[in-house]
Amino acid sequence: MERPKENFITEIIEKDLEQNIFSCKVHTRFPPEPNGYLHIGHAKSICLNFGLARTYDGLCNLRFDDTNPSKEEVEYVDSIKQDVRWLGFDWEDREFYASDYFEQLYQYALELIRRGKAYVCDLSPEEMRQFRGTLTEPGRESPFRERSVEENLDLFIRMRAGEFPDGSRTLRAKIDMASANFNMRDPVVYRILRATHHRTGDTWCIYPMYDFAHGLSDSIEGITHSVCTLEFENHRSLYDWFLKELEVFHPRQIEFARLNLSYTVMSKRKLLQLVQEKLVSGWEDPRMPTLSGLRRRGYTPEAIRAFCARIGVAKFNSLIDISVLENSLREDLNKRAPRRMAVLRPLKVVIENYPEDREEYLNAVNNPEDPDLGTRQVPFSRELYIEQDDFMEEPVKKFFRLAPGREVRLRYAYFITCREVIKNAAGEVVELRCVHDPETRGGDALDGRKVKATLHWVSARHALPAEIRIYDHLFTRENPSETEEGEDFTSLLNPDSLKVIEDCRVEPSLSGSKAGDIFQFERQGYFCLDLESVSDKLVFNRAVSLKDSWAKIKKNQ
Ligand code: ATP
Ligand code: MG
After folding, report:
1. How far is CA 137 from CA 123, 130, 445, in A?
2. Closest ligand to residue 30's CA
3. Strands 525-529 and 538-544, how do they pair?
4. Ligand 1 pocket, residue 280 CB under 6 Å
5. Which of 258, 259, 274, 288 to mutate to test the pocket of ligand 1 (most atoms within 8 A of CB)?
6. Domain identity same for 400 and 485
7. Which of 105, 363, 381, 386 is the Cys-Cys partner for 359 at CB 3.0 to 4.6 Å?
8. pLDDT for the residue numbered 4
9. Domains in the chain: how many in total?
């Protein structure tokens, strides 16, 4: 499996190993908050954390950062576990929950109070804001800052016992209201909140804040390198402060740039909004950047891991073009996906010199990249379908496919020549009358003559009906997270992000496919059988086209 390339994080770790800082061990963790489904940004963090553990023969924990009961749900926990496993990583028996440490964290809070490093504050949230100061002005100290250790212990114990209403008091760290770093201006450590927690139920009515719970959870688990995203850089001094004041095991926090991907959004809050407002079909909508959406779309764990390895990790934020992700999928599927023939917009072709009662089976290669995948048999008969786009009654320059009087190859089958065009009352082409050359069976002419085009096709009588869903970027703007004043990011949704093509025809060998099976439909792209598929109507999602059509558009602009 891929290992993280050398980067600034591996450099730090190697230095720590050399200097024997953490007894020569590397222990990382992936710490999702179970308040949404995982997305491709999380994949970057998963590959990094589990990858570092593997590289240095260490361990990586899965820890649910479940300190915020009002937004968290068991559904999310289950989906997160499924996604991490699907990506190919194993946390073995190290499945942890910050909520499992609530009692211990509470004891740490008592210890902070005893050491004179925390106090119970009665300021309302609004007053606290007023006292906090600004970027240019220091904050003001709370009038409750100098309470005695005894009074603080008494009040905090009573906070836990449920004696005070929600939001009426907080426990705050006693650090420095004049600090240039806002996070150090006596941050809240505990708040009073009566909310049912998905694991601890109603046991607690006080909950620890993220900064307090996170570092101490790392410490409890013996994490050596706590890798997180850049927005926590400003929190590192607080992370370090708690560990230092409590004199407990002290992991090293290292920040890296989060993944941003063009034409999509990555914030769970925004993704949740898309789901709740039914702007997508759910977290698993194949247009979503969630791992479950990508999986349903036809993304493979291999492609996602290769993508994460390719983008690497850095210390500055950037926007990765979504084509980098799509190319990783193409590269993976090109090697592995079996080839099949499918006609998205069928045009009937009748081979006039082919007997009506005849059918034959022709050899088709399953994957030219992988001879081990062998061949299959595709049925051929008098009536076929080809792609509407593959015919032009009056061919323009450089159109080499089928036209009246012209000969082309049907892949794995015969050369055919178009003799006659049949139209309906509206003047649309509805059928082509053609003849085939029996001497070209298999797709090559014995006399060596060449044709300029090879078309895919299916036998009308044998083909299966299918619905094919074609996806495009979810948003029209390259960076939909950068909205103007008063602009709602949902107004940037691409109205053409999903096109459903109803009456497609696919070759019969696809009948036994299972949801999640992925194929290359020749000349069309890579397609994944959707979970909504039923036996009399197959449903396929286009995972990705064969080529990056956006690259061409951009180049021509
Ligand atoms: P969001 O801001 O979207 O709600 P989050 O950071 O709050 O995401 P968590 O569940 O807390 O989501 O994330 C778990 C881990 O995944 C964290 O260590 C976080 O830094 C990392 N992570 C989240 N988003 C990204 C991203 N876009 N790129 C890289 N890592 C990420
Ligand atoms: Mg978070």
Report:
1. 19, 11, 85
2. 1
3. antiparallel
4. no
5. 258
6. no
7. 381
8. 73
9. 3
Q: Element (H or E) spanning 128, and its range? A: helix 125-131
Examine the pLDDT at 3 and tell me if it is beyond 90.
Answer: no
Residue 381 sits in a domain whose CATH number is: 2.40.240.10
- What are the tens digits of pLDDT across the range 337-368? 999 999 999 999 999 999 999 999 999 999 99
34 and 86 housed in the same domain: yes
Question: Would the CB of 68 count as within 6 Å of ligand 1?
Answer: no
User: What spacing in Å lies between the alpha carbon of 41 and ligand 1's midpoint?
Assistant: 7
Look at ligand 1, atom 26, and give the residue with the nearest C-alpha.
Answer: 41
Rounded distance, CA 513 to CA 502, Å?
19
Ligand nearest to the CA of 33: 1
Total-model pTM? 0.94
Q: Ligand 1, residue 34: give the atom nearest the CA.
A: 10
Write out the catalytic residue numbers.
33, 258, 268
CA distance 357 to 418: 21
| Cα gap 492→475, rounded to integer Å | 6
Q: Are residues 31 and 147 in the same domain?
A: yes
Average pLDDT over the chain reads: 96
Is 44 close to ligand 1, i.e. is its CB under 6 Å away?
yes
Ligand 1 mean position to 80 CA, how many Å? 12
Res. 552 pLDDT band, cuts 50 70 90: low
In this structure, which residue's CA is closest to atom 27 in ligand 1?
Answer: 41
- Residue closest to 481 by CA, chosen among 195, 270, 174: 270
| Average pLDDT of the segment spanning 5-27 | 93
Largest CA distance in the chain: 102
Its domain, for residue 168, covers 22-256
pLDDT one-digit tens code per residue, 213-264: 999 999 999 999 999 999 999 999 999 999 999 999 999 999 999 999 999 9
At 551, the pLDDT band (50, 70, 90 cuts) reads low
How distant, in Å, are the alpha carbons of 206, 445, 449 from that of 415? 77, 8, 10
What is the pLDDT at residue 19?
Answer: 93
- Distance from the alpha carbon of residue 55 to the mean position of ligand 1, in angstroms: 22
With the most atoms of ligand 1 within 8 angstroms of its CB, the residue from 30, 39, 40, 42 to mutate is 42
**d(C-alpha 456, C-alpha 443), whole Å:** 12
Same domain (yes/no): 290, 309 = yes
Residue 316 tokens, joined? 């500055």
Asked if residue 51 has its Cβ within 6 Å of ligand 1, the reply is no
